[in-house]
Amino acid sequence: MADRSGTVEGVRRANLARVLQFAHLERALSRSRLTALTGLNRSTVADLVAELTTLGLTIERAPDPSRRVGRPSPVVAPDPRVIAIAANPEVDALTMAAVGLDGGIPARRRIDVDNLMSPEEAARLIAEVADEWRGTVLRDARVVAAGVAVPGLVRAADGLVRIAPHLGWREAPVRTLVEEATGLPTAVGNDASLGAMAEHLFGAGRGIDDLVYLNGGASGIGGGLIVHGFPVAGTAGYAGEFGQNRPGILSPADRRAADGVLEDEVSRARLLAAVGLSGADEPTLAAAIFASDAPDVAAELARQRHILATALANAVNVLNPAVVVLGGFLATIADSDPAALDESVRAQCMPASAEDLEIRTAVLAEDRLLIGAAEAAFGDLLRDPIAGDVTGGQVRAATAS
Predict the structure, then answer these.
(1) 227-245: average pLDDT
(2) Candidates 3.30.420.40, 3.30.530.20, 3.30.413.10, 3.40.50.300; CATH matching 82-191+368-383
(3) Could you say which protein family the record assigns here (predicted)?
(4) Are 208 and 226 in contact (CB under 8 A)?
(5) DSSP string covering 152-208, please?
(6) Looking at domain 8-78, which CATH architecture does it have?
């Protein structure tokens, strides 16, 4: 494609993208606010919003009547009918959601499985659920893309899953499989990296330029990094594998796996076993843990908290983040005794590195990975709204079956 960035058309397309991105990130904002954020004049902003509305990407509504100071300005918001299909395959379930460009989630489903899904089976299930939704809850929506959050190493260039060890996937062309099954442009990324981006943009890390995110799921522990406001992916997209590190374990009595890595010791499976569950989603596991007064449960939480604190202290010493965000079962560990975790982390950090540190739990809760997958799916549209025109036939739209 020819580089049009310096042409009048290129400048307009860039400005369309900026306006759409601000509307997406803010969820809704006034035209006057858009004018201030973009530095463009009011008539230019009005024209850009009108074009985005014609493209089916934004809507305008009347200003808030409670704000009577000054000239009222129409409110611009992403069109909630613009949808990405988000999916997170795991060892025990496939979780999916329809995520709107406005952040709404009109549909969500968890499909429990008792066997490891193959990449082909995961793609088939994603397509089946997406087609069902298109004929029902998404009948009037425009489904523009799909995003898949995979617990494994994903090559950024082409969405190839190099290895998802707990799923048993190796060199799996997941992007191609999902695109062929759904007919949708598809983005594939590491689940924790996508979770980090979601929490950075919309959750516990909003407004924070330097953060470390650790995600605890059925497949183990992954992580994501935001440095100076930008995600750090590494050369091929494999950065953030905190679960494969080997933290020091001060007490031999705390060790459960000989020569184990972090995710062998700080483990969702061990927490499930402690409360006597064979499987559960995140809210169910958390509820079972907090409802228990069994000494064994308290002891397992304390053991895992000690080891997690060492891993977090290592990250803080290396990266000096402002915030550490914990998601999944790691959030449950943190919430069981926030003060103890904070104290243990600080005790193992260089004091200066931890001076302004905050440890937070994921605000987006069980939707964080799906919102991250949707964000990846919306990427092309947000970068160039015209190339991603959902009314122009380039993207398969939702239709009633």
Answers:
(1) 95
(2) 3.30.420.40
(3) Belongs to the ROK (NagC/XylR) family.
(4) yes
(5) SEEETTTTEEEEETTTTEEEE-HHHHHHHHHSS-EEEEEHHHHHHHHHHHHSTTTT-
(6) Orthogonal Bundle (1.10)
Question: Residue 153, exposed/middle/buried by CB under 10 A (0-12, 13-18, 19+)?
Answer: buried
Give me the pLDDT at residue 292, please: 97
Q: 228 CB contacts (<8 Å, ≥6 apart)?
A: 209, 210
**Structure letter (DSSP) for residue 223:** E
- Letter for the amino acid at 107? A
Structure tokens at 395: 């993207």
Q: Which residues contact 262 (CB under 8 A, 6 or more apart)?
A: 221, 242, 243, 244, 245, 246, 247, 307, 308, 311
Q: Give per-residue pLDDT as tens, 116-141.
A: 999 999 999 999 999 999 999 999 99
* Statement: residue 58 has pLDDT above 70: yes
* HSE of 20, CA atoms in CB hemisphere, 13 A: 31
Question: Which of 126, 328, 308, 311 is closest to 219 using CA atoms?
Answer: 328
Amino acid at 236: A
